[in-house]
Amino acid sequence: MSDTLLALSGVSKSFGGLKVIDDVSFTIPRGSRSAIIGPNGAGKSTLFNLISGAFPTDRGSITLDGIELTGMPARHRARHGLTRNFQNIRLMPTLSTFDNMLLGQHARAAGLAELLRPVRSPRARNIWRDEVREELDLAGLGAYVDSRVEGLPYGIRKKLEIVRALLARPKLLLLDEPCAGLNTAERDQILPFLRSLERRGITLMIVEHDMQLIADLCDHVIVLNFGVKIAEGAPDCVRADPQVITAYLGAEDQ
Predict the structure, then answer these.
(1) Protein fold of 1-81+170-254
(2) Which residues touch 220 (CB under 8 Å, ≥6 apart)?
(3) How far is CA 121 from CA 46, 107, 141, in A?
(4) Per residue in 235-250, pLDDT tens?
(5) 3-state secondary structure of 8
(6) CB under 8 Å to 212, separation ≥6 — which residues?
(7) How is the chain split into domains, by residue range?
(8) 8 Å CB contact between 239 and 211
(9) Which of 246, 169, 244, 243 is nearest to 214 (CA)?
(10) pTM of the predicted structure, to 2 decimals
């Protein structure tokens, strides 16, 4: 088995006459915790959308575990082990935590027949319910299983977004600013949970602005500026890179 889980080669994307991603290549090691950073407008979210299949690439190749994803619909990528969440919470507010978590399992369904099977089969339904409760317990959220989502604190809902994504059983989990809007206490609670995903064999890739969070969580960083990869490596090495200092972290006044 290759140590590389995700590989991008020469990926480019333009919108009209604006090139947003320009010939980007990198690999993501299996089991790593990687971050994509860069100033606003660097192309971070667009790159996530290309990897997840929300946008088609103009040129280049994206492979996951040796499987070519380029041109593959997003729903099919999920079946191959790629799952993502979004910066804005997309839980169903009027549903319970339990029902929201079931939506994450539906990403594993191979089609309509499989999607409906848990409704028809009591045994399958029980298995899926047990999986939801187990995943919530692992995240320390078992007490909220029957709660309506709209009444839960923001930090709990952010964590539930991640749990729902985990119920799709991803190999690669893409998280768009997983700690955005969290206070210090909430951030400190979610970090050990994100670190624990490595022990489960889940490779993590995040878009994040908080450099301290990246230093605390990630072992691999990719830096974009105007759609071009300008640096890649361990967090400490990236932070010391002159191009990164100038483009993102801010150069010292001379």
Answers:
(1) Rossmann fold (3.40.50)
(2) 28, 29, 32, 33, 34, 35, 232, 233, 234
(3) 40, 18, 27
(4) 999 988 998 888 876 6
(5) strand
(6) none
(7) 1-81+170-254, 91-169
(8) yes
(9) 244
(10) 0.87
